[in-house]
Amino acid sequence: MTDPDLLTRYNYDEFVPAKFGPWLNFAASPPLGGLAPDFPLWHLDGSETSLAAIWSHHTYTIVEFGSFT
Amino acid sequence: MNALAERFSERGVGSIFLYTHEAHPGENYPHLTSREQKFRHARALRDTLGVMRPILVDALDGACHRAYSSMPNMSWIFTQSGVPVYKSDWTDPHSLENAVEYFLGVIERRRSGERLAPFRVERLDFRHQDQAAFYKGLERNGPKAVREFRAAFG
After folding, report:
1. DSSP letters of B43-59?
2. Whole-number Å distance between alpha carbons of B7 and A62
3. Local structure of B143: helix, strand or coil
4. Model confidence over A6-59: pLDDT tens digits?
5. CATH code of the domain containing B138
6. Cβ of A11 and B29 within 8 Å?
């Protein structure tokens, strides 16, 4: 079941508590020590990869989440 | 973070930037409405802000970002088998450096025959706050981003 408003809510158009607040869920993040969830990701040239493919290349991998803004 | 990534790359540690959503949308970098726009903003992160690590782009609905708690600038460290060993609700190079050095040390200790068992720890780290640089970033996004941040936090 998909949420038709998800794209709009996730990509909120203004930085107001009612819109950004619900996304701050660090306390509910995956626990350390277990297998992490994997997701598809894309290189800047559009080619597809995955988070698992990325972390499998190195002894350890640092992943910083963020954006231009 | 670029310098940290370069220094640790020689020791088998990878480092990427995962592009999520616009935390402080403004006139110059508005909220995302298409995959093409998301890639355009991600390229600006490299070309304008100088992020030299590989930049990977999440789905437009933030599937990966949301699964990891959707904090705006968090960092995680994963082992090669996909086990997270560090997570931080904000990105700080000093905290990451400290953690990576520790985990690389774990490998050395095991190689030397030490028997090690994992345990959980919580720690409150401290990051440098550069308000001037932060506001400069908001201004780069557009006046709307500055107004909204001031309205939210004073």
Report:
1. HHHHHTT---SPEEE--
2. 13
3. helix
4. 999 999 999 999 999 999 999 999 999 999 999 999 999 999 999 999 999 999
5. 3.40.30
6. no
Structural domain span for residue A45: 6-55
CA distance A65 to B73: 5
Question: Which positions 25-54 of A are in contact with B (Cβ < 8 Å)?
Answer: 25-44, 46, 49, 51-52, 54
Tell me which residue of A33, A5, A7 sits closest to B77, measured CA to CA: A33
Cα B38–Cα B130–Cα B4 angle in degrees, nearest 5: 65
CA proximity to B22, closest of B6, B42, B52: B42
Q: Distance between CA atoms of B99 and A64, rounded to whole angstroms?
A: 14
Contact B19, A64 (CB under 8 A): no
* Contact list, B144 vs chain A (CB under 8 Å): 14
pTM: 0.96
How many domains in chain A? Answer: 1
Test the A interface: residue of B4, B46, B58 with most A CBs within 10 Å? B58
Would you list the DSSP string of B95-115?
Answer: HHHHHHHHHHHHHHHHHTT--
pLDDT of the residue at A1? 46
**ipTM given for this complex:** 0.96
Residue A61 resides in a domain: no
Spans of chain B, pLDDT less than 50 = none
- State the greatest distance between any 2 C-alpha atoms of chain B, in Å, as a whole number: 58
Counted domains in chain B: 1
C-alpha span between B98 and B85 (Å, rounded): 13
